[in-house]
């Protein structure tokens, strides 16, 4: 599973002023990331505003992304939800051509027990032709996937190959690293802690800020994976303020503002999300200019 080592980027979905999907912008974004030397792409995760896209839009975006990528990088499709049967149906009808794995966020809102989470993912695993990455993001789902459940799934379901961990808990990261099978991938789901997670044994990050700064981020991640933390640390510290700005008024509004400054795509988002405030936009413009100068 070395194809998922390094920097993965959770692609934003560019929109036009009328709210339609901006495929020209998505084309530029994909090539921007490939030129920036990231290791793989994630289509329609949380950062892609998947919750506000209908089934037809999702299908077209997945097909378009695979076509533009044209096999240059591994591709992951975000397919999750809080209705297990619907997630399974979405996976069964998903056109897998050009894709290497599924990333599936744990069920939100229902607040299932750990046994419910286990059975949810076990059913997904049994239905998927592609390898599956778990995605634990309790700040969004209001439900944590415990280390015990993660490692139980890793042991019992051979096509569950890793987890994108965005719990923010180093106690949880430690337990997963201690108890997981040797080939099970721990991937950081939070940009600010990617480097320290790699020091524990994580194999990389699925990033938001990488949309805008693919080279800067992936350079730091590669140095960290080599164990050269002396060289990686200044690069990590240089991204702290930019990263803080990206999440100050919500994701992906922040990173879309940076992408607009870079000329990759516009910064429109779909309600209930709104764009960043004028003050934050000015700060993002200044920081983006500084880093990319």
TrEMBL record:
Tell me the residue numbers annotated for binding pyruvate: 47, 206
Annotated catalysed reactions = L-aspartate 4-semialdehyde + pyruvate = (2S,4S)-4-hydroxy-2,3,4,5-tetrahydrodipicolinate + H2O + H(+)
Keyword Transmembrane annotated: no
Which residues participate directly in catalysis? 135, 164
| The UniProt record lists the keyword Lyase | yes
Record's InterPro entries?
Aldolase_TIM, DapA, DapA-like
What does the function comment of this entry state?
A: Catalyzes the condensation of (S)-aspartate-beta-semialdehyde [(S)-ASA] and pyruvate to 4-hydroxy-tetrahydrodipicolinate (HTPA).
Source species of the chain:
Pedobacter heparinus (strain ATCC 13125 / DSM 2366 / CIP 104194 / JCM 7457 / NBRC 12017 / NCIMB 9290 / NRRL B-14731 / HIM 762-3)
Identify the domain of life. Bacteria
Enzyme class label: lyase
Identify this protein by name.
4-hydroxy-tetrahydrodipicolinate synthase
Query: Which CDD domains has this protein been placed in?
Result: DHDPS
Q: Which residues does the annotation list for site: Part of a proton relay during catalysis?
A: 46, 109
GO MF annotations, alphabetized: 4-hydroxy-tetrahydrodipicolinate synthase activity
What residue ranges carry the coiled-coil annotation? Answer: none
Q: How does it assemble?
A: Homotetramer; dimer of dimers.
EC assignment: 4.3.3.7
């Amino acid at each position: 599973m070395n194809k998922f080592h390094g920097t993965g980027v959770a692609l934003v979905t560019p929109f036009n002023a009328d709210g339609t999907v901006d495929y020209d912008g998505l084309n530029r974004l994909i090539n921007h990331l490939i030129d920036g030397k990231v290791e793989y792409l994630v289509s329609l995760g949380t950062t892609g505003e998947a919750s506000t896209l209908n089934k037809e839009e999702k299908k077209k975006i997945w097909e378009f992304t695979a076509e533009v990528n044209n096999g240059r990088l591994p591709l992951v499709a975000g397919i999750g939800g809080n209705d297990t049967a619907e997630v399974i149906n979405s996976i069964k009808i998903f056109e897998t051509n050009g894709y290497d794995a599924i990333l599936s966020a744990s069920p939100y809102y229902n607040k299932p027990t750990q046994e419910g989470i286990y059975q949810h993912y076990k059913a997904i695993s049994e239905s998927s032709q592609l390898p599956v990455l778990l995605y634990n993001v309790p700040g969004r789902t209001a439900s944590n996937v415990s280390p015990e459940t993660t490692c139980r799934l890793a042991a019992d379901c051979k096509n569950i190959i890793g987890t994108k961990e965005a719990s923010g808990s180093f106690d949880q990261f430690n337990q997963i690293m201690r108890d997981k099978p040797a080939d099970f991938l721990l991937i950081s789901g939070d940009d600010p802690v990617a480097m320290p997670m790699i020091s524990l044994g994580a194999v990389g990050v699925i990033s938001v800020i990488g949309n805008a700064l693919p080279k800067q981020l992936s350079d730091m991640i590669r140095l960290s994976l080599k164990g050269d933390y002396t060289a990686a640390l200044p690069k990590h510290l240089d991204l702290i303020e930019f990263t803080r700005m990206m999440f100050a008024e919500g994701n992906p509004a922040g990173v879309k503002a940076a992408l607009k400054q870079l000329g990759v795509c516009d910064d429109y988002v779909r309600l209930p999300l709104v764009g960043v405030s004028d003050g934050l936009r000015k700060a993002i413009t200044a920081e983006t200019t500084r880093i990319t100068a």
